[in-house]
Every structure is written in structure tokens, then in C-alpha cells.
Amino acid sequence: MKLNVRQGQIQNEASDLIVVNLFEGVTMPGGATGAVDAALQGMIADVLASGDFKGRLNATTVFYPRGAIQAKRVLLVGLGKAEKFGLDQARQVAATAAKKARELGAKTYATIVHGAGIGGLAVQDAAQALAEGTLLGLYQYKEYKKADDNGGEVGGVTIVEYDAAKLDDIQEGVRVGRAIAEGQMVARDLSNKPGNAATPAFLADTARQIGQEHDIQVTALSFAECKAMGMGMFSGVAQGSNEPSQFIVMDYNGGGPGADTVVLVGKGITFDSGGISIKPTDGMWDMKHDMSGGAAVIGAMQAVGALGLPLHVVGIVPATENMLSGTAFKPGDILRAMNGKTIEIQSTDAEGRLVLGDALCYAARFKPQAVIDMATLTGACMIALGKHAAGLLSNDQPLADKLKAAADRSGERVWQLPLWDEYNEQIKSTFADMKNTGGRGGGAITAAAILKNFVDFPWVHLDIAGTAWGEDDKGYNTKGATGYGVRLCVELLRGWNR
Ligand code: BES
Ligand code: MN
Ligand code: ZN
Question: Rounded to whole angstroms, what are the CA distances from 410 to 90, 94, 175, 198, 280?
Fold first, then answer.
């Protein structure tokens, strides 16, 4: 979809629709909204006076200008309370407007940048949020189905700004926002794709293709290669599936010598049946999304490449199904990780920590300054935090704080959980160095406590079980995969050298 930037006055745009905005509680519109109101002889002020539109966040109302201006429709969207306004509200408002424009059948529309005026956002940031919200809000996964009947397709959006001095910043914000949103949509596409199509081999092919387009070295190690390297946990999970596993490594070298290395690791279980410890029928279909962490890594790598960030960034995705079969691993089995540690299997459904553990061991070879892993790891994390934040666990508080700052800016929230040594008691095993489940208490934490055994660098674990997909069709999220983690990681990396 096209996103053009142009100097001009929004009330003069000839378009299917123009978008203006208003904060809650404003009685007399100013700025661009005021100019449109004047051109419409006070239509907007009338609606405000009637109390029918209060400016609540994401509220919309449509005006028909009857020839007073060239645009066919005017869409007024609420920004909510000024004191609660920030980048995420700008992102949401952009998505709300885009969805409404599509519903109205607008093929093109023009919009102002939300929040750069009295909203107080930096112009470039506001433009980035506008691009992200617009593209992500219009996202639909329609590979297997006609698009839902929601009005058709928006072909192009023109961002109109009166102040010529702001245009360069807006252009730059749009460039960044587009790269990030496109990466996030790659992640959504992969995660939404059913397990019979989004196989480990498909993930590897996608990674290779992205690698070619963005100058990223991509390799995928086979099952035999992983086994020979001592990845007993990853191959233990993979051995039960007929779908060949792939250990995907994407190596982007955008920094000169001496640049920092950051490794992103993503859980790539393309379907989690639970294995011999099989899951109940209900909801098992959602386990096609169990590679959402891996999808976020692949999407983030694309964005990093597109933006040409001056860093060494490595993406690792251990990809396999978790299946039951005559060759599947079993409860009671003991597996040996790449770093030599042993783990007794109590549940084959606690497979994410196994594949991630070997991937974290592998990450050590890059001598990273930081490693971030993302995984739909535990139902317990979803119980703890719901769908509004990922669980964050870390062995390095400065790095954890950097992620929190990136979360604030990207709108992909995190909430830190403790990783005290006391939790290690719960994963002690009679027969091996540890066991792979920690009982009922603190399930998201004991999972991270297991991962910690495979880490010897600054590390953050993000449990995205609650945030990776949802039923919500609000704002910039659509039903199904969210692509959570792409904006967060790219924001972290963009600010890395600051
Ligand atoms: N992929 C699941 C976690 C999950 C469940 C994510 C539901 C999103 C929604 C993971 O592999 C798993 O099965 N975890 C178990 C661990 C338990 C056996 C210790 C869980 O959370 O129940
Ligand atoms: Mn599982
Ligand atoms: Zn899983």
C-alpha cells in the first residue's frame, strides 16, 4: 500500500475521505481540524455542541460535506484524554481511521499526522506511529479465504502536513514505520499460516528469501547436524515428527568491526500437540501459533535489514513440530543439552524450554553483548498477565531496563517477573541435573529458571504466550497473530548505540 507525504492543507484534498482528529473535552476545534470545521461552516463544532461526539479514544464520526470541500467524506477520530495520549494512542487512532476508511469503501484517503501538534509527540515518532498503525490496522490474513466483507481495499494514503519544515521528519518516520510494520506482518503471516503449510522447511525458506533481499546470511542446520553438534534437547523434541526439523540462523552484519552483537532467539514449534503428554482437544488448533516467537525473530530480522541498522544481529529459530509417534521422546527420558547438562523429561509438553535451551547454547558462539529470546512458553504466563503484556525475565537488570524502555515506545508491553535462586528448588531432579517442569507454582518463572542453565551472557526471556495472538480486532491488532515482538525488538536495536 502506498503512503505518500505531501505539503498542503487537508481541507483542500480531493479524496474519498479525509481524516482529522480531536482530543476529548475540546469544545472548539483548532489546527487542521479547525480549518476543516471552518470549511464545513461549523459542522464539527455543531456535533461537539450536541454532545454526540466526545473525542473518546478511537471514537469516530463521519461528515458528508455536500460540496463544501472536494473530499467526499470527513472522518473525525477521537484522540482520548490529552494527558493519556502517547505513541500507542497515535498508533491506535491511525488504525481505527484506516479500518473505518476501508469499511466506508474509500480507495484512497488523506490524513493529518496524529499527535504531532498539541499532542506533543516528536514529529518523526508520530509519523512512524501513523505508518505502523495504518499498515498493521489494515492487515488481513486471507491466503485461504476471500477477505471479510469489510468494504474492499485501501490503495493509498496521503499524509498531509501544512508546515513544510516538518516534511523531512515525516518522510523519515514513515520510512521507519513501514519497515517495522512490514516486518511485523511477515511475523503475522507466518504465525497465522496453518501448521500443514508453515512447516520448519517453510520457515527456513522464508528466512532464506528475506536473507537474499536484505543481505543476511542464512543457514539452516538439519536434524542430523544438530544431533551431531550435541543438541540433545532440540533433537529430542524433533525426533517424533515426520516433518524435518530446521535450526535456522540468520546473520546480519550491519556494523563494522567492533560493533555490538545482539542475538534474537525465537521458539519455532510449528505445531505443539504436547507430544506423548498430549494436550486436550479443545484449543489445540491454536498450537499452530507456537512458532510465534520464531516468526517475530524472522520478521524483526527483515526490518533490521531493511533499516540497515549499524549492528551485528543474529536471529536463531529452532524449528520443529512437537508430535507423538513411535520415535517420539517420552516422559522419564533424559536428554543432554549442547552444554552437557542433562534434563529429565516429566512432560513432553514442556518442549519450548528444550528447543530454546539448545538455541541459547548455540548463541554463545557469537559472543553476544545481549540475547533476547521470545517464546510462547507457558500457559502460566498467560494466566499471570493476561493478553496485555509479555512476561520478562532476565539475568541482567540494565538489559531488562532497556527492554522496558523499548516496550514503552513500541507499545508492546512487558512486565518483569522475578528469577530468584529459590525457584531452582522446583526443578531439581533425582536422576539428572534438572527436570523439565517445576510444578504448579510460578510456571512462567520455573520455565525461565530452566533456560537460565543454558545462558552465559546478558539475557532477557520474553514469554509471549499471552500476547502472540488474540481474538481482538481492535486498533492495530486483528484477530489471530499479532506479530508481537517485532516492534519491541526493532525499537531496542534502533536505540542500541544511543
Ligand atoms: N506452547 C505451550 C504454551 C502455551 C499454551 C502457549 C497455551 C500459549 C497458549 C507450551 O509448550 C506448553 O505446553 N507449556 C506447558 C508447560 C507445562 C507442561 C509445564 C503449559 O504451559 O501448560
Ligand atoms: Mn507444549
Ligand atoms: Zn509449546
Answer: 11, 15, 16, 27, 35
349 lines ligand 1 (CB under 6 A): yes
The pair phi, psi for residue 98, each rounded to 5°, is -65, -45
User: Residue 290: CB within 6 Å of ligand 1?
Assistant: yes
Distance CA 440, CA 417 (A): 16
Measured distance between the N- and C-terminal CA atoms of the chain, rounded to whole angstroms: 32
| Alpha-carbon torsion, ordered 89, 92, 98, 101, to 10 deg | -80
For residues 254 and 301, the answer to whether their CB atoms sit within 8 Å is: no
Return the ligand 1 atom nearest residue 437 CA.
19
Nearest to 221 by CA among 246, 252, 250: 246
Ligand 1: nearest atom to the Cα of 468: 8
Closest CA to 81 of 20, 36, 22: 22
Q: How far is the CA of 383 from the centre of ligand 1 (A)?
A: 11
For atom 3 of ligand 1, the residue with the nearest CA is 378
Q: Which residue has the cell 504466550?
A: 465
**351 close to ligand 1 (CB < 6 Angstrom):** yes
Q: Give the number of the ligand closest to the Cα of residue 273.
A: 2
Q: To which H or E segment does residue 470 belong? A: strand 469-470
What spacing in Å lies between the alpha carbon of 217 and ligand 1's midpoint? Answer: 32
CA within 13 Å, CB half, 404: 12
Amino acid type, 446: T
Measured CA to CA, the distance from residue 383 to residue 397 in angstroms comes to 24
- Give just the sign of the alpha carbon dihedral 136, 137, 138, 142: positive
| Active site residue ranges | 279, 353
Give the contacts of 146 (CB within 8 A, at least 6 positions apart): none
Distance of CA 497 to the CA centre of its chain: 22
The CA distance from 136 to 129, in Å, is 10
Distance 317 CA to ligand 1 centre (A): 18
Question: Can you name the residues that pair with 218 across neighbouring β-strands?
Answer: 250
SS3 343: strand
Q: pLDDT confidence of 188, banded at 50, 70, 90?
A: very high
User: Tens of pLDDT along 236-249?
Assistant: 999 999 999 999 99
Burial (CB count within 10 angstroms: exposed 0-12, middle 13-18, buried 19+), residue 164: exposed
Q: Nearest ligand to the C-alpha of residue 380?
A: 1
Tell me the C-alpha distance between 100 and 276, whole Å. 47
Answer whether 0.70 is exceeded by the pTM.
Answer: yes
347 lines ligand 1 (CB under 6 A): yes
Distance (Å) from CA 352 to ligand 3 centroid: 5
Structure confidence by residue, pLDDT tens digits, 343-399 = 999 999 999 999 999 999 999 999 999 999 999 999 999 999 999 999 999 999 999
* Cell output for 451: 533456560
Q: Which ligand is nearest to the CA of 468?
A: 1
Give the three cell numbers for residue 366. Answer: 557469537
